[in-house]
Design a protein that fits this description.
Layout lengths: L1 H7 L10 H4 L4 H5 L8 H15 L1 H8 L21 H19 L7 E4 L4 H11 L4 H7 L1 H12 L3 H10 L5 E7 L3 H16 L3 E11 L4 E2 L2 H4 L3 E15 L8 E6 L10 E4 L4 E7 L4 E5 L3 H4 L13 E8 H4 L12 H4 L6 E3 L12 E3 L5 H9 L35 H10 L3 E12 L8 E11 L5 H9 L2 E3 L1 H13 L4 E2 L1 E2 L9 E3 L6 E3 L3 H8 L11 H4 L4 E2 L6 E4 L3 E2 L1 H6 L1 H4 L8 H11 L5 E4 L6 H13 L6 E5 L2 E2 L16 H8 L1 H9 L9 E2 L2 H30 L9 H6 L3 H22 L3 H22 L1 H4 L5 H22 L4 H13 L34 H24 L7 E7 L3 H9 L1 H8 L1 E7 L6 E7 L1 H8 L3 H9 L3 H10 L2 E3 L2 E3 L3 E7 L6 E6 L8 E6 L4 H22 L8 E7 L4 H13 L12 H9 L9 H24 L12 H14 ...
Parallel strand pairs: 1-2, 6-9, 7-11, 15-24, 23-24, 25-26, 27-28, 35-36
Antiparallel strand pairs: 3-4, 3-14, 5-6, 5-13, 7-12, 8-9, 8-10, 14-16, 17-22, 18-19, 18-21, 20-21, 27-34, 29-32, 30-31, 33-34, 35-38, 37-38, 39-40
Helix pairs in contact: 4-34, 7-9, 8-9, 18-19, 26-27, 27-28, 28-31, 28-33, 30-31, 30-33, 30-35, 33-34, 35-36, 35-37, 41-45, 41-46, 42-43, 42-44, 42-49
Family: Belongs to the class-I aminoacyl-tRNA synthetase family.
Catalytic activity: tRNA(Ile) + L-isoleucine + ATP = L-isoleucyl-tRNA(Ile) + AMP + diphosphate
Protein name: isoleucine--tRNA ligase
């Protein structure tokens, strides 16, 4: 059944294991499907099928149900749009932490939630149906409007589930919560009723940020991050003539909101500021703050201002101006506010940093305006305000001159009217920051609206205290951003004059004197005298018609029309998602003891003024507790150019395309291993994801592939390899001990950091360990792992590698759940426990790696001594490589000695332990050790001016001089104690050590590297003098390197047993001519390297036949071009400094002799590396099945002919056999061909004389006769006939002649 599903391309149904998993049984089955090029996305799809087949997430929950609970709250997103990288990032963080919590002995319920109410939904409906006013909604009907909203709430739920699942996140979509469910809404009512009981709810006029596009007030935290820069607005100064003033004086006030001027009913000054009455050169008299005269007379700001524009007539304080009456700007509110308004008020909020020091008051449109006018009796509590703008931002008939105009559009007509009336004193523009509605994109106005508020300001101390009780990662978000927000928290407007939301559960009499706050459906049914069973929906269309009889004889109580701000609903989710407190006493007790506060939440930095804030306010108000114990805050994911990701700009790649290109694991690891987990911004890069794949995922895969291949080689001995934890733990090998200790140290570190929720420190360590495993343990132990040091050593080292890979897989599984699962299934296939009775927590037996617990670190395997020794070894090897790079000494060239010098004998002793590894890695004859630092370098102390200059001031100079005069004994004492007394100053910082090499720098290369303590004091000295014997040893390594590269090119695996035949020889004349002509023909892409000899050119011409295709002229031309390049190369080489390892140029006969001598002198090393004894070409049997034949160019002019033959029939290599089959050739017929057929299908001649290989955009070998040359990229075929068709007639003829 599974096979049929796979064949049809359909995913297996639950219960059917994917075929690739079902057939895994033993090492051979694993090895059969380990390709060179691993397809991570395809492997992830296989794992998804596996999880579905075994119902992995549900099983994990079942297996862990009796463990202590780890509580996680998932903030509900809106489903009206598709998930973006911000959602993927937050979801990955949540998945990592909850998987880890399960790993470490907890039960973790994970429910997905949906935010279903509020402006995001309504705004979509308004756009679709052209709704722009409350009247249009009422005409349509609230029931129909809400039905439209309900219809789009779950529009993208399926897409969300697909993306979340494809990213590897385990969360319950079947048992999700939706804020529109009646049981959820009922708990929201309960939350509000508790605030009501605590007298934390009030109704009042308050000037709030108001969205005309959404026709509703907004919370302050919704506006805080919605400011736009570079907004251009009018900047005007207008006059207010003082009533009955003898001089005709006028107050002048500045504003950037001309649209508020028709609503002006007062002016405000600062009581303590100094004001002046000035007469201008035109005779006008103005009153304004003395400090703000430059607003009217900007020339005052210029240097050398001489005055003359005005005279000060009088001075007074703001307090003296209070009560002064003035003429209204417009007549619209003169009758209504003629007695209480149009006078000067005084309040300290007025400043002298901008404007004129006189502020115009429009109490309906300014928070301070409303407060001051109410306090001074201009307006009265409960009285209508001068508010001539409707809910959509349009002027009403109260101001007939501007009726029907949108408030921002009215600026110009209002300014024109003021100019016409002579009240416009100054007009310009200002560019500043201005808030816009985050949903509708319309400009925000501040407007007095009747709203319901939660009194937050009185809770500030408790909010900050509860915040301090929560752990924030990173800490600065809590200590600065969130703390500051809470410390200045303002009363929260929780109501919206909208329709699609949870209705406020307040029923009130017509006069507003009797109010009831409902806490449950049961209470509403009892008070209204209806059946509770009828309350199946609590939206407005169902509850607005319900009336409650008054208990005070005030008729009936009707529900107030507002609904809750959706932030109130999401802030109520800890209680509402479990229908608290309506599920019985036991459920309430369980919630209070085990599910509140949450152990963990995570969201983006923007939620500090959103969900984090509402959670904290409500939990503090209800229980005086924080709603969460631990929170991870991530930064913003930006486009690669640093801009916000924008669909319209198309400045970011589709997340699913990235996943299908590189895999979800690579994307997860890239995001988690970035600054964004420290609440910093991340410029997303597809290249970064690809690098994560190449630098971490591929080496991890290749390490396992190496393990499986080496283990399969052991199987050939007759005793199948079975990993043994006991053998791994008991191994005495230094590198085995190190890797086992380092793995336990890693596990210990991961546990410690994950307990602190510092994902940004964990992932770099995991990634670094995978690199260490590949580049240090496997590379340094390749001989042991592949059996070259005996079968027992191989089994021990492979067991170590298996155990460490297993632990890494467990540690990585929360971060890379797909590949960890894929790898576990393969490792399980050859584990002794694979056929034992299933246990969900036993490696090899469990059906998923995600069922396994993370074992406690094994302290018995920790070994600080060997860890320090390996760290020292790595430092020494790194230093030695740096020296070789600086001196241009190839690693294949041996050096006489490497000396390690350190003042601490313990460091030297640690290096001695790893002497053999150091010698091998640095390819040196011997390693020497010394503690006599003075014999090789001098050490001095330099005072750091950046650190000490500012602290010491004038005392720095004598301190610097004293530091320079320190004796070697003084320096030694400073290094030992970290303290020095210089010029009377006791210093522990600001003194830097500088070291200078005093040895023979011409002969010795040196490098100072950091020792295990982090101090750059380990001196690595390399003797760079190269002898002829060393050159021959280097040449032997060059030979083995070419052979190994050819093995890789052929696609051979370690189980393919081959014979190698080598023959150093000079080139034939025909070969030399062909190479020269080939290079000449392709000189534009790759210029020729050397000119052919005259004899070679002549031989090529002679061999071309009667047609004369290769002319002397062509050969001469080719030689000329090659000669020019050779001359340039020689000139460049002459100008460059001579380096120690430069190979001497030899004639061809001497070069061949050198190569034979190199092979003879280093026969054992060559044989050990190649795992086969190379034979001379003369020993090649005539009927041998040749795999490949290549002529390689080596240093000193050595030309090496290499031939591979298979020991066993061709079919023994699955790779080569498959290629032959694809070419339509029976294995038995093949005699000569390139194993590149494994990658590129080609015609395969039966006689094997010439090969035609397809070239796929890259340079691939071309077989001509028995030799391999380089073919130019871009040609469809490399057959001689196609060279001619491509315009290379001369070269085609030469190839034919050579063959």
């Amino acid at each position: 059944m599974a096979a049929a599903a796979a064949a049809s391309g359909a995913a297996p149904v639950a219960g059917d294991l994917p075929e690739s998993i079902a057939r895994l049984d033993g090492l051979a089955s694993v090895l059969a499907e380990l390709p060179d090029r691993f397809d991570f996305p395809a492997s992830e799809r296989e794992v998804l099928d596996l999880w579905k087949a075994v119902d992995a997430f549900k099983k994990q929950l079942e297996y862990s149900k009796d463990r202590p609970e780890f509580t996680f709250y998932d903030g509900p997103p809106f489903a009206t749009g598709l998930p973006h990288y911000g959602h993927i990032l937050a979801g990955t963080i949540k998945d990592v932490v909850t998987r880890y919590a399960t790993q470490t002995g907890h039960y973790v319920s994970r429910r997905f939630g949906w935010d279903c109410h509020g402006l995001p939904i309504e705004f979509e409906i308004d756009k679709q149906h052209g709704i722009s006013s409350k009247q249009q909604v009422l005409e349509l009907g609230i029931d129909k409007y809400n039905a439209l909203c309900r219809g789009i709430v779950t529009r993208y739920c399926t897409e969300w589930e697909n993306v979340v699942t494809r990213m590897g996140r385990w969360i319950d979509f079947r048992n999700d919560y939706k804020t529109m469910e009646p049981w959820y809404m009922e708990s929201v009512w309960w939350v509000f009723s508790q605030l009501w009981k605590k007298d934390l709810v009030y109704r009042g006029f308050k000037v709030m940020p108001y969205s005309t596009g959404c026709t509703t007030p907004l919370s302050n935290f919704e506006v805080a991050d919605s400011y736009r820069d570079g907004i251009k607005d009018p900047s005007v100064v207008v006059s207010f003539p003082i009533v009955d003033d003898a001089d005709g004086a006028e107050f002048v006030a500045w504003t950037t909101t001309p649209w508020t001027l028709p609503s002006n009913v007062a002016l405000c000054v600062h009581p303590a500021l100094k004001y002046v009455r000035v007469r201008t050169s035109t005779g006008k008299v103005y009153v304004l703050a003395e400090a703000r005269l430059s607003q009217l007379f900007p020339a005052m700001n210029k240097k050398g201002y001489k005055g003359g524009e005005f005279d000060v007539v009088a001075e007074m304080t703001g307090a003296e101006l209070e009560g002064t009456r003035y003429e209204p700007l417009f007549p619209f509110f003169k009758e209504e506010y003629g007695e209480t308004g149009f006078r000067v008020l005084a309040d300290e909020y007025v400043g002298d940093d901008a404007g004129t020091g006189v502020v115009h008051q429009a109490p309906a449109f300014g928070e301070d305006d409303f407060r001051v006018c109410l306090a001074k009796g201009v307006v009265a509590k409960g009285q209508a305000l001068p508010l001539p703008i409707d809910e959509s931002g349009v002027f009403t008939a109260k101001v007939p001159d501007f009726a029907g105009m949108y408030f921002k559009d009215a600026d110009e007509p209002i300014m024109a009217a003021l100019k016409a009336s002579g009240r416009m004193i100054q007009k310009s523009s200002i560019v500043h920051r201005y808030p816009y509605c985050w949903r509708s994109g319309t400009p925000i106005m501040y407007r007095a609206v009747p709203s319901w508020f939660v009194a937050v300001e009185g809770m500030r101390d408790r909010l900050t205290a509860n915040n301090a009780a929560s752990k924030w990662v990173p800490e600065f978000v809590s200590e600065r951003r969130f703390h500051n927000w809470l410390a200045s928290a303002r009363d929260w407007c929780v109501s919206r004059s909208r329709y699609w939301g949870t209705p406020l559960p307040i029923w009130a009499s017509d006069d507003g004197e009797e109010m009831v706050c409902i806490h449950s459906r049961k209470q509403l049914a009892e008070l209204a005298g209806i059946d509770e069973a009828s309350l199946t929906d609590l939206h407005r269309e169902h509850v607005d018609r319900i009336e409650i009889p008054s208990k005070e004889g005030r008729g009936t109580l009707k529900r107030v029309e507002e609904v809750f701000d959706c932030w109130f609903e999401s802030g109520s989710m800890p209680y509402a998602q479990v229908h608290y407190p309506f599920e019985g006493e036991a459920a309430c007790k369980d919630f209070e003891e085990h599910r509140f506060p949450a152990d963990f939440i995570a969201e983006g930095l923007d939620q500090t003024r959103g969900w984090f804030y509402t959670l904290m306010v409500l939990s503090t108000a209800l229980f005086d507790k924080p709603a969460f114990k631990n929170v991870i805050v991530n930064g913003l994911v930006l486009a690669e150019d640093g801009q916000k990701m924008s669909k319209s700009k198309k400045n970011y790649p589709d997340p699913l395309k990235v996943v299908e290109s590189h895999g979800a694991d690579a994307l997860r690891l890239y995001l988690i291993n970035s600054p964004v987990v420290r609440a910093e911004p991340l410029k997303f890069s597809d290249t970064g994801v690809m690098q994560t794949l190449r630098q971490t995922m591929l080496p991890w895969y290749n390490t396992f592939r190496f393990l499986a291949t080496a283990a399969a080689h052991l199987d050939e001995s007759g005793t199948p390899f079975e990993p043994s934890a006991a053998a791994a733990a008991a191994s005495a090998n230094l590198m085995d001990r190190w890797v086992m200790a380092a793995a336990q140290r890693l596990a210990q570190y991961v546990r410690g950091e994950m307990e602190e929720y510092r994902l940004y420190t964990v992932v770099p360590h995991l990634v670094a360990f995978i690199d260490d495993l590949t580049n240090w343990y496997v590379r340094l132990n390749r001989a042991r792992l592949t059996g070259r040091e005996g079968e027992d050593e191989a089994r021990n080292s492979l067991s170590c590698l298996y155990e460490v890979l297993g632990l890494v897989t467990r540690l990585m599984s929360p971060f890379t759940p797909f590949f960890s699962e894929w790898l576990y299934q393969r490792m399980r296939a050859f584990h002794p426990a694979r056929n034992s009775e299933e246990s969900q927590d036993v490696w090899g037996s469990a059906k998923s790696v995600h069922f396994l617990s993370l074992p406690e670190p094994d302290a018995s395997l920790l070994d600080e001594g060997i860890e320090r020794a390996v760290d020292t070894m790595r430092a020494a090897i790194t230093g030695g490589r740096l020296v070789r790079d600086a001196r241009a000494i190839n690693m294949r060239m041996p050096v006489q000695s490497v000396r390690l010098v350190h003042r601490d004998a313990a460091v030297v002793d640690a290096a001695k332990v790893m002497e053999e590894y150091i010698r091998s890695e640095l390819n040196c004859e011997k390693v020497e050790f010394s503690t006599d630092v003075a014999a090789w370098c001098s050490t001095s102390v330099v005072a750091d001016p950046k650190v000490l200059g500012k602290a010491l001031g004038k005392r720095f100079k004598p301190v610097a001089e004293a530091a320079a005069a320190m004796t070697p004994e003084d320096v030694e004492a400073f290094m030992a104690t970290g303290k020095a007394t210089l010029a009377g100053e006791v210093l522990t910082e600001g003194l830097n050590l500088t070291r200078s090499f005093t040895g023979d720098a011409a002969r010795y290369g040196f490098e100072f590297v950091a020792d295990p303590a982090g101090d750059a004091s380990l001196l690595v000295i390399v003797d760079c003098e190269i002898t002829d014997e060393m050159r021959r040893s280097g040449l032997a390594r060059e030979i083995t390197n070419r052979v190994q590269k050819l093995r890789k090119t052929c696609g051979l695996i370690s189980t393919d047993v081959i014979h190698v035949y080598l023959e150093p020889r000079p080139p034939t004349a025909a070969e030399e001519a062909v190479v020269a002509l080939h290079e000449a023909a392709t000189s534009k892409a790759a210029p020729a390297k050397a000119a052919p000899s005259k004899a070679a050119a002549a031989a090529a011409a002679a061999s071309s036949g009667a047609d004369g295709a290769v002319s002397k002229k062509a050969a001469k031309k080719a030689g000329k071009k090659a000669g020019k390049k050779a001359a340039k190369k020689e000139e460049s080489a002459a100008a460059a400094p001579v380096v120690a390892d430069e190979w001497p140029a030899l004639d061809t006969a001497t070069a061949a002799a050198w190569a034979r001598m190199a092979l003879a002198e280093n026969a054992e090393a060559v044989k050990s590396t190649l795992r086969v004894n190379p034979m001379p070409l003369a020993a090649l049997p005539k009927q041998a099945g040749v795999i490949v034949r290549e002529v390689a160019e080596l240093p000193m002019g050595v030309r090496l002919e290499i031939v591979f033959t298979l020991e066993t029939p061709l079919a023994s290599s699955a790779t080569i056999a498959a290629a032959a089959k694809a070419a339509g050739v029976e294995a038995a017929e093949s005699t000569v061909f390139s194993a590149l057929l494994a990658r590129d299908a080609a015609t395969l001649p039966a006689d094997g004389a010439t090969l035609s290989l397809r070239v796929d955009g890259a340079t691939l070998p071309l077989v001509v006769g028995e030799h391999v040359f380089s073919a130019p990229s871009g040609l469809a075929k490399a057959a001689a006939s196609d060279w001619a068709a491509a315009g290379f007639a001369e070269l085609a003829a030469a190839y034919s002649a050579s063959a």
